[in-house]
Predict the structure.
Amino acid sequence: MADEKFRHESLQDKESIGKYLNALSDGFLNGKLQFSWKNKRLVLEPQSLIKFDVETKKKDGEVKMVLRFRWEQTPESSMFADGPLVIEAQGKE
């Protein structure tokens, strides 16, 4: 699979940032995040377990906040390459 990268930086007001954060929340809940700007587009499909990292810093009047999300992009079919696990209870005979 080829590496895909999307990066965008701009100056936004706090209301716009709130809308972007709501869109991220909806995307995580629905299992699909789409990022696009000009002719670039990247679609991500978050898996069930996601590593979440928050970093904030205040220094000399400047504030920085970094949010990171990481997960393995594993196709559903490869998760069960050998077939799904089956566990059955046996009744008394």
